[in-house]
Amino acid sequence: MTTELSLRINGATHAVEVDVRKTLADVLRDDLGMHGTHLGCEHGVCGACTVLLDGRPVRACLIFAVQCENASITTIEGLADGERLHPVQQAFIDNFGLQCGFCTPGFIMLAAGALAEKPDMDDEELRELLSSNLCRCTGYRSILLAVKQAAAAMRPAAR
Amino acid sequence: MARTEQAQRYVGGGVLRKEDPELLTGQGKYTDDIVVPGMVWAIVVRSPFAHARINSVDTSRAGGMPGVIAVYSGADLASEWAGPLPMAWPVTEDINNPPHWPVAKDKARFAGDAVAVVVAESRAQAKDAAASVEVDYEALDPVVGVEAALRDGAPLVHDEFGTNKCYTWPLADGEVDDVFAKAPVVVKERYVHPRLIPNAIEPRAIVVQPVPSQGEFTMWSATQVPHIAKVTLSITLGIPESKFRVIAPEVGGGFGSKLQVYAEEAICLAVARRLGRPVKWVEERSENYLATHHGRGMIQDMEVAATEEGKLLGVRAKMLVDMGGYLQLVTPGIPLLGAFLYAGPYSAECYSVEFTGVFTNRTPTDAYRGAGRPEATYAVERIMDALARRVGKDPAEVRRMNFLPPFSEPTPTPSGLSFDSGNYEATLDKALELVGYDELRKEQAARRESKDVKQLGVGLSTYIEMCGLAPSQVLASLRYVAGGWDSATIRCHPTGKVTVLSGATPHGQGHETSWSQIVADALGIPFDDIEILHGDTAVVPLGMDTYGSRSVSVGGVAIHHAAERVKEKARKIAAHELEVAEDDLEFADGKFQVKGAPDKAKSIPEVAFSAWTAHNLPEGLEPGLEETYVFDPPNFTYPSGAHICAVEIDTDTGKTEVVRYIAVDDCGTIINPMIVEGQIRGGVAQGIAEALFEEAVYDDNGTLLTSSMATYAIPSAAELPRFTLAGNVTPSSTNPLGVKGVGEAGTIAAPPAVVNAVIDALSHFGVTEIDMPATPERVWNAIQNAKGGSK
Predict the structure, then answer these.
(1) Would you say B466 and B417 are in contact if contact means Cβ atoms under 8 Å apart?
(2) What pLDDT digit, counting tens, does each position of B291-302 carry?
(3) Which domains, from first to last, does chain B contain?
């Protein structure tokens, strides 16, 4: 069974006809060719598919595309401001917050969404936040440092 | 050894990675991002039984479902195979080597074994239809553990051998039994190394595009080994290697699990050939748990003979190794990568190890980060602590008195290999200082005295490992089928840009950055003007891929040599153009300069242009500036280090917390400190998880209980401690760069450091043994059993 759907992604509106059983991740990847959102486990544990739904991080593998109509979706492709990287992206380069890069879009979207809401999290809160997602390469230290740098850059005083 | 003339500007510097911008913006192309017009999807139907006879496979109902193009049983596809899946390491002449067909025909030998394939227009349609494939299984008794598998009357995984024994591989040196019989002290312990599931975050994925009229195939695969896959799959499928191209695009982590040639690769090639259409398969995470190979899985009976003072006299060890249901690419050879390390960095008079490979009805095992070396190091470092307890000395002291003395040239060791360089005592001293060893011991004594509910333990691991696989002739003597060389080509374009082709195939390690650093320094080319190509067999003709921490010490060294060749030729051209003798030139500041007249100079880009126009070349010299070097290392490299872990154990709950972790590593010369640090941090994280959290648990039916990311304990950011890293470099004597390798140090070093710390925290209760993972339950039980004081 398919349905017509209008999705607002990274500021642009996409009209798609999708199978109603498709997750948001599947529609982003298969129907819209936006491959930056990665699928690591397809059951909501690893967080590689994290995107922002109305600014808040969600697992794109656990939400149906039809649930996202009228919402504003941000993916890794839409995070940078043109050539200028988002502070979280820049901090990941500066702190070597990635190795293979597969979990990276999920971590970046998680941090970007959470920091936009609360840029003054302390180390313990950040660790708790980052434990939402899994990385097998870095041991997390460099991700934590990256997100701390991004948090500093995103605090109102720093703007 | 000769070093480059030029001052190093990039090597050793913390250069930011070239790879990152595209990976951070969603532009990295992984295999699942490859879309080919007309592509169909494959889903593999897998046995739910660990051991079952396949009486029949009825595909008719599935075949009639929406979107379904074809459904194949093992029998249906049998004619596609020119040979079984590859097994490249028959470690003994009499090894029992069963044929491993991509889709099982008669018997399923582990839960997850492929029994049928569904092909449909969409993945969802294929998945739906897969549930309707009717397989008539006759469940057989499974054999789940290695010891049970060797008992008389055990069910047979492969009936034709009449036994579940795969092989016995012995390595004996010296009069071992005699030394042990006469030794004043003999310590013997049994260590159980659990099976682990590698869990790269990117699942495996495969796309095959055929050109039916030409008989050509292109395969994209999330693999660490595109070059090895091309050779071996061309044999399995009977596809001419000249018509077969393998591409590993961005690969999202491997840790050894993608050092494999998998059934699904063969299946996609076969289906693409049969249908004449592109085929895609993407692994589900549950399949990653069942059908991607596991690591470790070894029972080690480890013994040392020593003097009353704790001076080692000999090492004797016997191991049972779980092969799983089939032999994958290098399954039998994995323990051999540790076989020469059972004396660690210590001296001993005699040495004997023996490995027995055993078939079980479980997922096949193969390489997982460290591969054989973590097992060996675990046994060695655990028993050094046991020896220290036995002779009543501090574990640091017992290690110190047994270390090989410092050396910088190849030096023979108890197992018969020659190590390249090392200064083990200095490394340990640095680690002891950084961790504050004396203070920790005082604190430990105070807590024991006050019967603190939180007891403190300190664990040491002074490891040695073996990288830079490998001298091809040594591999031949170990009966490995392929060579151990790697290749590099440096192409200097007339516009001054440089392309490097590397036979190493990264999956997160940052080769593009490290290789660019080597070339930039060697040729005086700006870092950003260098492009590294890899992982495509049509672009890089010669390669042996990335595994076993071999990339820098083989592939990286090949790049160094290729750059030297480029300079050799460029020097001829520069001398000719400058009308001086070659000896009158020195290479400095990225240019060939006339000695004493440095403004008379030619840069590599200038020479590359001259080499391209070929208007004024020395007599007989070929146009162009492109050189290839294939490096076959003369020896392995032997990274080493000292890791020290301090844990706090809540004796009421059994919960272990790592409160301090110090890693001092000697990985040889460092190309990029940031990348090296990342490798060590990631490896130590996996090693700590191995010690405390992770284990593939099976029930008696051979069903994997830890079969998802929710039940298998991969650590998150919340579970891992901070750790402090330091180095103590001794340049390798094996290669001119002095590099050793670093990818596996963490998983090799960390498990015994952590477990030794756990036991050390509880030794005053009488606890001497806790198996990995040291979960709160195991720790609590060990405390209760020791306190009960029975046994």
Answers:
(1) yes
(2) 999 999 999 999
(3) 39-140+199-291 (3.90.1170.50), 403-412+420-467+637-790 (3.30.365.10), 485-631 (3.30.365.10)
